[in-house]
Design a protein that fits this description.
Order of helices and strands: HHEEHEEHEHHEHEHHHEHEHHEHE
Number of strands: 11
Radius of gyration: 21 Å
Number of domains: 2
CATH topology of the largest domain: NADH Oxidase
Shape: globular
Number of helices: 14
Structural class: alpha+beta
Strand order of the largest sheet: 3-4-2-1-11
Largest sheet: 5 strands, mixed
CATH class of the largest domain: Alpha Beta
Length: 406
């Protein structure tokens, strides 16, 4: 018999309550006005303009938080970081947000090039403290200024709206070396980026255990636990339609009992007692089960770990994900290890208990034996590949007019 109350439906956070205010449309023009534009940029038809921005809005983001705001002004396109949607324990120093913004930038570039346009991108034009993270100017092919983006990924444009996270359990069928090489080569234009794969049972078992350990740390960490249940998981269709972000629980390949188990874990009192009693070994079981039915695990890194590296790394993530979509491979991010190792190594474990820091330090040593990586590298993205059935629906996006200011 349970000796403490367990709510079946965790209470959702009021979307208006956060430490950071929403980025208001009225502020965007003021933030953008200091940027000097090229006089030869083109004016687009509204239909093409809408296609480019919709492509950008379909980029992936951590927990589908969509941490962006766009401004169209004087035939230029401004990408802002709206921290209201991304501020979380997972987003140490906004690095996960930079990754997401880089994904959005890559979709915009590919979509524009697919329409026969040349793209000039200015990233972090006013530094990391400024909310403006990138400016895009477009040109006809017969008017090409310096610093135009190369066209190496234009062929992936048809896959932008088909790309999705596949959380279904897959088969362990072997992925061809040719396909893995194609994924590795898809990111070579991003300077300093590297993509490696492991697929042996020994490596997958080790990574499965490490991810399960990280999931346990997350579930027992008060802030991370609260954010998971109040901001990330959407348990009902009503929540999905209200917020249009987060992760729809129905998109996760779970039994009804497993879904109920996740809901029960939403009680912070229960999790506190589990932590006090040193229980909770099963908290990471579902992630381990997913690794057990994967064909390969990919790990994407970049030579340094500054914000601009994560922004460029996000472009690499999107290139690889679109390539996987082209190859009909099921693709699911398993990002908790890079998130926590980044906080451990770059932030000296800020926000973790001494016990968790010690655990993560030993986990890093084990992980580094699977994927040898210098500590100064940017640990961008961990993901699993498999062959699995296609999800019947995709995660929702907030409305175009809520995000794009004209």
């Amino acid at each position: 018999m349970l000796l403490f109350p367990i709510p079946v439906n965790p209470i959702k956070k009021d979307p208006e309550s956060t430490n950071t205010a929403k980025l208001q449309n009225s502020a965007l023009y003021e933030l953008a006005k200091s940027f000097t534009l090229d006089p030869e940029r083109v004016t687009l038809e509204k239909e093409i303009e809408h296609y480019l921005l919709e492509s950008a809005l379909h980029a992936p983001s951590g927990a589908n938080c969509q941490p962006w705001k766009w401004l169209i002004s004087e035939n230029a396109y401004y990408l802002f970081h709206d921290k209201y949607y991304s501020e979380s324990f997972n987003d140490f120093n906004d690095l996960a947000s930079y990754l997401s913004l880089g994904c959005a930038a890559e979709n915009f570039i590919i979509a524009a090039q697919n329409k026969g346009l040349e793209v000039k991108m200015s990233s972090l034009p006013f530094g990391t403290e400024h909310k403006l993270k990138a400016v895009f100017q477009l040109f006809n092919q017969d008017t090409i200024p310096p610093l135009i983006m190369p066209h190496e990924s234009t062929h992936l444009a048809p896959h932008i709206f088909n790309r999705h996270t596949n959380r279904n359990k897959g088969s362990q069928s072997k992925i061809s070396s040719q396909d893995l090489l194609g994924l590795e080569e898809s990111i070579t234009s991003i300077e300093g980026a590297s993509l490696r794969f492991v697929h042996s049972k020994k490596s997958l078992d080790e990574l499965g255990e490490l991810i399960a350990m990280a999931d346990k740390i997350k579930m027992l960490h008060p802030q991370a636990h609260e954010e998971l249940f109040k901001n990330e998981i959407r348990f009902t269709e009503e929540e999905n339609l209200k917020y249009k972000d987060g992760i729809d629980i129905d998109l996760v390949d779970l039994t009804e009992n497993e879904k109920l188990g996740i809901k029960l874990c939403g009680d912070s009192q229960v999790m506190s007692l589990i932590n006090t009693w040193s229980l909770g070994e099963g908290l990471g079981k579902m992630s381990k089960d997913l690794i057990d039915c994967s064909s390969a695990i990919g790990f994407l890194t970049i030579d340094s770990n500054n914000p601009i590296d994560f922004f460029n790394g996000g472009r690499a993530v999107e290139k690889a994900w679109l390539k996987a979509t082209e190859l009909n491979l099921a693709f699911q991010p398993m990002t908790i290890l890079p998130y926590y190792f980044t906080r451990l190594l770059k932030g000296k474990g800020e926000g973790f208990s001494s016990k968790d820091k010690d655990t993560l330090t030993h986990m890093w040593i084990r992980f580094n034996a699977v994927f040898p990586t210098p500590k100064e590298c940017g640990q961008l993205f961990l993901f699993r590949l498999s062959e699995a059935k296609t999800p019947t629906k995709q995660s929702l996006r907030r409305p175009y007019n809520d995000i794009v200011c004209t």
